């Protein structure tokens, strides 16, 4: 999707800013013209500091992915990439016309422990790396020809401060906002749709208006609603605001025959708020919103616009593979589009607030979002214990040290910034918090001194009665902090900002949390890998709403959702492979995703595509029987599990399978067919290998065992036309290079994804041979990186060479401000691809 906003951007050579709006309010894109230095410089905040030798940097910027993977001063928890301390500086000019106005700088996220100065004046700090924040620059600015200097220090010297890859630097967008002194402050417009039907909807708007002048002002707040640039309603309210005062203005606008927002038709409206003084508009703010209603019912699940539906969700961390945490819009669009094609309709932002831009995309594409605030509260999750890392305690220190002081501000910042996104249907206050409080785990009977026999936490209901667990919990030392008390505070702070959405959390020990007071602070109780206790929870706590908020990518996690109306859906762990949470070198991250690090589809993706789609689906994966989880049962004439209950007890990831048909003659091959069709017939070189039904396979995977023979393997639906084939590939003879764009804008934002697939001379994909590929790149492009998708790859990202995995790799380029033609060619050994051209306008 092209960002039309950039058609009107003007580059300022001195300021490095791009003006987004030249009306009463100016919003300048502040991502350009920065200087960056890796390492601490104690005087870098000073106005007169000379940074001419620093390198140029475009924001968003993540310095960690610019480096090689290493085991020196890194760890698997954060993807074996270096951290440290970094400084950013930017010189800019302010027009004389802004002298009597208010100017602030808005950061959407800086990881982490940021401190900001303007012209040598200290503005403040923000410990939480995912919090959006702003500073008022007005009192310290120079206007006209005298330059201003903004300096930002980012301290991520604690390189194991997270359980996943967080990135390093100013990794999200920055804006400079100038408005009149009578204005709408940041996040000052709240839009809700409390009454919705297909006939009409009531849009309720609450607008903060602030007067920073000494004298009282009479103003008119004019609010107008647009749909597809057509005005459909509005309201004007006159009011008087005292000097240095502020007021909240309530307005209601009725929309007839509204175009409702949903997952299939994500219709968006635009609301424009104007502050008018003496008939002149002195401030103007535009907000996008959607008209929709939703609810969770304790017995029948989730409803969107009155229609009962299942949440087919995935959890996502915030990195984008090779681009790290500084993810361009186009990278997210490609990834989310692929998930959408599988039937995914919901996202949990695990385990932190997402970027504003990410949520814009969710609004536009029709994803339902659970936005999460925190992974840790007061007690830390020690990364050394989780990931077998030898490191000093100080390098694992993270947000828990700041939680007590900053939690209220940070969670309210998240809610205020994101409250108008129609995609968001839940606020999550925490992820698996109970692990860090011993009195929770020790009470259950699953662990510690109270453990009962071989009871398994993941597959068994609690071995004790509710009364026994309650007694164990109450008799255990409680510790300094109380989960229930903190949960009540967090929930209260959320609802002080927004009452239109439920509060949830991802509970990992619900057998305690449901009675301890923790669950009572929630409107929706999220369950983490606890499908074994769905019925237990419903039986013992029938008035609570339950939801699967973290689940394995397996059929046994989706099956209860289909069978139990009171479970609204699940969020798979995860939608996409992510960096971090590695326990061994060389492995850069978790391979639990439906998509790999490069955004390529994995076998688990194909499985869930069959579960989440009504359209006919058939897919084939293969493996040597000796390497598969199956064995041949001669009596049943079927492949059966080598280990009892293997399929129903699978956790993270997917069994090792191949998506090719290349083995040795007469090898015994296990063929897995993922489908939503009732019966499948397998053909090898047009000869039937038999028919099997989906109903006879409890793991929802149809399995055949056949001797390998070169040729073509086809799985075909018996009662339909849907089929899927794979063929034996010969030696690599071609490099098939494809680009996902033919034309991009010269805005220094748009991206092009180049996918390379090795093929034989007949164009059959070769997925069992690997080559080192070199990309030749000319034209106005910035190299963002290369990737092959494999979790065990620790090749550099920002290079033009990469060794393929499964015969595939990815190159991402980004446009610059220069117009022209980008030309890309791939080479490997004596092979060369055709040259692809992408026009940059």
From TrEMBL:
Gene3D superfamilies on file: Galactose-binding domain-like, Glycosidases, Immunoglobulins
Protein origin, superkingdom: Bacteria
Domain Glycoside hydrolase family: 735-836
Pfam families: DUF4982, Glyco_hydro2_C5, Glyco_hydro_2, Glyco_hydro_2_C, Glyco_hydro_2_N
PROSITE patterns in the cross-refs: PROKAR_LIPOPROTEIN
Any GO MF annotation of the entry: hydrolase activity, hydrolyzing O-glycosyl compounds
Example of a GO biological process term: carbohydrate metabolic process
Residue ranges of domain Glycosyl hydrolases family 2 sugar binding in the record: 83-178
Ranges of residues in domain Glycoside hydrolase family 2 immunoglobulin-like beta-sandwich: 192-292
Assigned keywords, A-Z: Glycosidase, Hydrolase, Signal
Domain annotation DUF4982: ranges: 668-719
Annotated Glycoside hydrolase family 2 catalytic domain residues: 298-433
Family, per entry: Belongs to the glycosyl hydrolase 2 family.
Protein name, per record: Threonine synthase
